[in-house]
């Protein structure tokens, strides 16, 4: 089968790790025609906006995109390209599977969980307002529809991936209305899936529990900001940001991207670990139904990790992005 997919290389280490993913996809034999598009700073320079219409139109046409990280300037200026892209395409669910990797020794050897994050509203609604000089508000928007959608997604994902338990993450004791509505909707959905275990945990308690015993968790479903923070935290349990993939899934479109950012501190130096990008491409192949190719790439990468001879610096090795990429292709 021939696929037409949008490719957004991104900023910083984006072109390096995306280059690696594309090379490996190529070597796997899956026939992909790429439609290159841009978001972020490059798009602002060329079109005066972080997410140009051309990019949205490309994804609307191809339905699927593989995306690298983009730099978002802090403070004043344009809206986050990531938040805009997710809202414009209604990519309502973000999934980040966090699992121990062969040969990578970390503090815990029993991590196998998925972070499911609501991707379009919450505190990332982008509605900020200066009331008077020195006083600002930032709106946390929670809608019944979005809570319902993320709840359904989480329970369906749990069932379809043979998982056993959904844990809803909240701070409803303080944010009684917003997180209260989130819990109310998730509980309704939990009642429709009696064969899936369900429990709830406050976000602060979860943070402590995760660094004490992550094996107690299976699928964690939560709002936008909590999900952003907890995905980085959980990536630290299995080797760091360089190894955890992600997917943004909506009803009509899907955008696959690593959890990490553009890592300006190591950009352009052949130091970035491309594994998170490569495993995001594997998630994309699974979404497309190309399970055999996805498994082959994952197995090839795991074999290289297990052998331990070729590893990037973040995993204690001395190899660069390119050498690691070549090793995976040879292993394929
Ligand atoms: P970051 O994820 O870029 O980097 C955090 C740390 O992890 C740095 O020390 C970096 O060198 C390291 N790291 C990240 N990815 C790595 C990889 N593949 N291999 C080895 N080491 C890696 O987070 P930071 O520094 O907070 O953000 C930098 C920029 O990225 C910001 O402009 C931020 O807004 C943006 N960002 C974009 C995201 C996206 O496009 N999805 C997600 C997160 C941040």
List the helices and strands and how they pair.
Layout: E1 2-8, H1 14-28, E2 31-36, H2 41-47, H3 53-62, E3 64-67, H4 81-88, E4 93-99, E5 112-118, E6 128-132, E7 135-138, H5 144-160, E8 165-170, H6 178-191, E9 197-202, H7 203-212, E10 219-222, H8 224-238, E11 247-249, E12 254-256, H9 275-287, H10 291-307, H11 321-331
Parallel strand pairs: 1-2, 1-3, 3-12, 5-10, 8-9, 8-10
Antiparallel strand pairs: 4-5, 4-11, 6-7, 11-12
This protein binds 1,4-dihydronicotinamide adenine dinucleotide.
Tell me which CATH architecture of the largest domain applies here.
3-Layer(aba) Sandwich
SS-based class: alpha/beta
SSE succession? EHEHHEHEEEEHEHEHEHEEHHH
The geometry reads as globular
What's the number of extended β-strand segments?
Answer: 12
Distance between the termini: 20 Å
CATH structural fold name of the largest domain: Isopropylmalate Dehydrogenase
The residue-averaged pLDDT reads 96
Describe the structure.
The protein has 332 residues and is of the alpha/beta class. It folds into two domains: 1-91 and 244-332, Isopropylmalate Dehydrogenase (3-Layer(aba) Sandwich), CATH 3.40.718; 107-237, Isopropylmalate Dehydrogenase (3-Layer(aba) Sandwich), CATH 3.40.718. 41% of the residues lie in helices and 19% in strands. The protein contains eleven helices and twelve strands. The chain has helices at 14-28, 41-47, 53-62, 81-88, 144-160, 178-191, 203-212, 224-238, 275-287, 291-307, 321-331; strands at 2-8, 31-36, 64-67, 93-99, 112-118, 128-132, 135-138, 165-170, 197-202, 219-222, 247-249, 254-256. The strands form two sheets. Strands 2-1-3-12-11-4-5-10-8-9 form a ten-stranded mixed sheet, sandwiched between helices. The protein has a two-stranded antiparallel ribbon with strand order 6-7. Helix 1 links the parallel strand 1 (2-8) and strand 2 (31-36). The longest helix has 17 residues, at 144-160. The two termini are 20 Å apart. The mean pLDDT is 96. 1,4-dihydronicotinamide adenine dinucleotide is lined by residues 13, 17, 69-72, 82, 241-242, 257, 260-266, 272-273, 276, 314.
């Amino acid at each position: 089968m021939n696929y037409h997919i949008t490719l957004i290389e991104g900023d910083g280490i984006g072109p390096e790790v995306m280059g690696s993913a594309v090379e490996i996809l190529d070597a796997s034999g899956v026939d992909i025609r790429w439609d290159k598009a841009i978001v972020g700073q490059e798009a602002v320079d060329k079109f005066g906006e972080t997410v140009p219409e051309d990019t949205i139109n490309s994804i609307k046409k191809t339905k699927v995109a593989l995306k690298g990280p983009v730099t978002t300037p802090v403070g004043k200026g344009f809206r986050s390209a990531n938040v805009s892209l997710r809202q414009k395409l209604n990519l309502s669910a973000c999934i980040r599977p966090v699992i121990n990797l062969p040969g990578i020794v970390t503090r815990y050897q029993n991590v196998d969980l998925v972070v499911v994050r609501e991707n379009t509203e919450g505190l990332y609604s982008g509605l900020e307002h200066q009331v008077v000089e020195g006083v600002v508000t930032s709106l946390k928007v929670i809608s019944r529809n979005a809570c319902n959608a993320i709840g359904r997604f989480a329970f369906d994902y749990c069932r379809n991936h043979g998982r056993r338990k959904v844990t809803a993450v909240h701070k409803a004791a303080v944010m009684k209305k917003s997180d209260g509505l989130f819990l109310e909707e998730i509980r309704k959905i939990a009642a429709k899936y009696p064969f899936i275990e369900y429990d709830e945990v406050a976000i602060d308690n979860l943070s402590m529990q995760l660094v004490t015993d992550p094996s107690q968790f299976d699928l964690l479903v939560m709002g936008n900001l909590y999900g952003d923070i907890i995905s980085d935290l959980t990536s630290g349990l299995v080797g760091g940001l360089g190894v955890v993939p992600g997917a943004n899934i909506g009803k009509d479109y899907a955008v696959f991207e690593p959890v990490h950012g553009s890592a300006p501190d190591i950009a352009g130096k052949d130091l970035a670990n491309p594994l998170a990008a490569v495993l995001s491409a594997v998630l994309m192949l699974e979404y497309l139904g190309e399970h055999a190719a996805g498994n082959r790439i994952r197995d090839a990468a795991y074999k290289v990790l297990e052998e331990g001879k070729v590893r990037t610096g973040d995993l204690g090795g001395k190899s660069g992005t390119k050498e690691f990429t070549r090793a995976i292709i040879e292993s394929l």
